[in-house]
Design goal:
Elements (H helix, E strand, L loop, with lengths): L2 E6 L4 H12 L2 E7 L13 H13 L5 E4 L5 H11 L3 E2 L1 H12 L3 H32 L1
Parallel strand pairs: 1-2, 1-3, 3-4
Helix pairs in contact: 1-4, 4-5
């Protein structure tokens, strides 16, 4: 079954590449959203575009994921997920899925799993540090 997605990203070569990668892993792009020039770095999108994205997700129940064409840092991804839910994938997630789908050997599978775990570990470490900083600020 093909995942139906909303793609978020600036026009250019990176967006073209992520479109091709999404197609390789059976994702159908239902809508594209371009971040506004006045975007909020904490959420990647501007307030209006974020509201548009939330509205699209409410209206279209068949949308299974939101893909951001760029790699997101932990705090931005975390804040955006809090707004739109766990459906969020960034460039790194898509690249790992492509490798997973097209990897042939068990060694490749282990390397992909290692990369995925290292990525999760980096996010977990940053989340812990982020939480500690919030607690200290209070």
């Amino acid at each position: 079954m093909q995942d139906k997605i909303i793609l978020v990203g600036e026009e250019g070569p990176d967006l073209k590449e992520i479109k091709l990668l999404c197609e390789r892993i059976d994702m159908e792009i239902m809508k594209s959203i371009k971040p506004s020039s006045d975007r909020d770095p904490s959420h990647y999108l501007g307030k209006g575009r974020l509201e548009d994205l939330e509205e699209e997700l409410r209206k279209k129940e068949d949308i299974s994921k939101v893909v951001v064409a760029e790699g997101l840092d932990f705090s931005t991804k975390h804040r955006l997920q809090k707004k739109i839910g766990p459906k969020l994938l960034d460039r790194g997630d898509i690249v790992l899925q492509v490798f997973e789908k097209e990897g042939g050997s068990s060694l490749t599978g282990h390397q992909i799993e290692r990369a995925r775990l290292e990525r999760k570990n980096a996010y977990a470490t940053k989340k812990r540090n982020f939480t500690q900083e919030l607690c200290r600020a209070r």
